[in-house]
Write a structure and sequence with these properties.
It is a single chain. By secondary structure, this protein is an alpha/beta fold. It folds into 2 domains: about 220 residues, Adenosylhomocysteinase-like (Rossmann fold); about 160 residues, Rossmann fold. The chain is built from 17 helices and 15 strands. The strands form 2 sheets. It has an 8-stranded mixed sheet with strand order 9-8-7-10-11-14-13-12, with helices on both faces. Helix 1 crosses helix 3, helix 2 runs parallel beside helix 15 and helix 8 runs antiparallel to helix 15. The longest helix has 24 residues.
């Protein structure tokens, strides 16, 4: 039996799900195909994901393919209660998610989803898979395979595989080009700044924005922040990524120096304690702290609390002000959790269209003969990535060239010289 906040919100949820669906033409096409082919007939799916309008599109697609779906939230601050209600009341999914639930409730919902006995698991950050292996190994027997859609989750899965702890195959959907190149770069880039502006109403033009991490997410953020007129400083631990940032014209500094310069700080590294007490101690009055990495560990919130002599909670929605002994004020957004989902609505639906198309097609691929893979982290087949890109281009009325026969021969021959 589902656990949601208010079933009466279903009508509003249906309307918002329909609005998002307009911007997800690839997933709609796959849903129509699934309704005919039924590749997931009889499969039980447990998903730990952000309960948003875009996720609802994926859940409905899996259902069209014949699956029964149980959904729990991968972040309590991102749960949209009206969407959860619509999925239960109108679309027949099991949902265990309430906006703002505490840590105990969060993990109780993960357990409830796992207790449905899934054949496939879909994860966003590896908490579902982690809980399954550590707390509920008794339920692993039914699981044939899984998918992971975040960088943080893939890192954790690779570590599990190296230690021989991973007991079923998991496909790194995050690592497909149509996911990380677009979702991370364009989705995170736009939605993170959207969340910061909604939470603070600050003008980004002329501000010095420090971005910790220059992976796909960091690149997207840096590009968009510069486009809005901000001065961008990048911090990195990877020499190659730092060089890339520098050659793109961004200032590159260690965090110890960047902490003195920045007015807005955004962490997107996938690691913990990126902004620590020694950094907080030298920041300017009014500095804004935001995280867009998956877990709430990138900004040391405990160190911030220890430095503060006073905390003003909710000075604006999703903004808490910490007053230090010398009178400086530091503003923490979304409790250090994902600012783009807690203070805004996450990625635009047009971006999630590709990410969830990758998920849906990968689930079908696993269900139709590939769930017998070795217990390891696997790549999405290239043909799935290519198909999603092809469908997206077609939905945008964009055509591309095809190789001629001579060009094909040339690319596949070593005998032809200059």
């Amino acid at each position: 039996m589902s656990d949601i906040s208010d079933a009466a919100l279903a009508y509003e949820g249906v309307k918002r799900i329909g609005w998002a669906d307009r911007s997800m033409p690839v997933l709609r096409q796959i849903r129509e195909r699934f309704a005919i082919e039924r590749p997931l007939e009889g499969f039980r799916v447990a998903a730990c994901m952000h309960v948003t309008t875009e996720t609802a599109g994926l859940i409905r697609t899996l259902q069209a393919g014949g699956a029964s779906v149980a959904l729990c939230a991968s972040n309590p601050l991102s749960t949209q209660d009206d969407v959860a209600a619509a999925l239960v009341e109108e679309y027949g999914a099991e949902v265990f998610a309430r906006a703002g639930t505490d840590r105990e409730g969060y993990y109780a919902h993960i357990h409830r989803a796992l207790e449905t006995g899934p054949d496939l698991v879909l994860d966003d950050g590896c908490d579902l898979v982690n809980t399954l292996h550590i707390d509920r190994p008794d339920l692993i027997g039914t699981v044939r395979a899984g998918c992971e859609q975040t960088t943080t989750g893939v890192i954790r899965l690779h570590q599990m595989a190296r230690e021989g702890a991973l007991r079923f195959p998991v496909v790194a959907v995050n690592d497909t080009d149509t996911k990380h190149m677009f979702d991370n770069r364009y989705g995170t880039g736009q939605s993170t700044l959207d969340g910061i502006v909604r939470a603070t109403n600050t003008l980004l033009a002329g501000k010095t924005i420090v971005i910790a991490g220059f992976g796909y997410c960091g690149r997207g953020l840096a590009e968009r922040a510069r486009g809005l007129g901000a001065r961008v400083v990048v911090t990195e631990i990877d020499p190659v990524k730092a060089l890339d940032a520098a050659l793109q014209g961004f200032a590159v500094e260690p965090m110890a120096r960047a902490a003195e310069l920045g007015e807005v700080f955004i962490t997107v590294t996938g690691n913990r304690d990126v902004i620590r007490g020694e950094h907080l101690a030298v920041m300017k009055d009014g500095a804004i702290l935001a995280n867009s990495g998956h877990f709430d560990v990138e900004i040391d919130v405990r160190a911030l609390a220890d430095l503060a002599v006073e905390v003003h909670e909710s000075v604006r929605p999703q903004a808490d002000e910490y007053v230090l002994a010398d009178g400086r004020r530091l503003v923490l957004l979304a409790e250090g959790r994902l600012v783009n989902l807690a203070a805004a609505e996450g990625h635009p639906a047009a971006v999630m269209d590709m990410s969830f198309a990758d998920q849906a097609l990968t689930c079908a691929w696993l269900a139709t003969g590939h769930a017998g893979l070795a217990p390891a982290v696997h790549d999405v087949p290239k043909e799935i990535d290519t198909e999603v890109a092809r469908l997206k281009l077609a939905s945008m009325s964009i055509g591309i060239d095809a190789l001629t026969e001579d060009q094909e021969d040339y690319l596949h021959s070593w005998r032809i010289g200059s």
